[in-house]
Design brief:
With about 200 residues, this protein is an alpha/beta fold. It has 9 helices and 7 strands, in the order βααααβαββαβαβαβα. The chain has a domain of about 130 residues: Rossmann fold, CATH 3.40.50. A hairpin with a 5-residue loop joins strand 3 and strand 4. About 35% of the residues are buried. The mean pLDDT is about 95.
Amino acid sequence: MNIVCLDLEGVLVPEIWIAFSEASGIPELKRTTRDEPDYDKLMRWRIGILKEHGLGLKEIQDTIAKIDPLPGAKEFLDELRSITQVIIISDTFTQFATPLMEKLGWPTIFCNSLEVADSGEITGFKMRIENSKLTTVKALQSIGYDTIASGDSYNDLAMIQASKAGFLFRSTDKIKADYPELPAFEEYKDLLEAIKKEL
């Protein structure tokens, strides 16, 4: 029994924070898990910047409404889901992911949630579980699944390394250089072929 675990941002959709950084004109918000491995630290820093600029959930959701999946992502996902089970495991938040899931044909996603004040200010965040990607992969393995994982960032490495097979997808040169043992792909067709060989 196989199950494929995919990261969301950078793999299926553009990086939400980068899109919001561009829309809001705040260059510091371009920082992602490709740059900062400590997600908790990264999110607290982001929330501080939003507060400083008086920006909240609505402004981010307005940007997300204009984001489309990466070219070919939905077709890749549709084909993959026709041959095996797929779960998206992301460190993003339900409030960000829902409109994107609609555009991807409602795949299953495990993610986190934001704490939002009545004013719309993002005051905090609630992680579903610690080390969510690795913990989820281990939980799936404990109920009889072999996992195949793919992602692009530091926070994907643990689930990729813990899986029966794991692949980097459109990752950074630094991550690819630091983890030369992990096969790295740039095109969906190549990732799909690599996954199919493991099924």
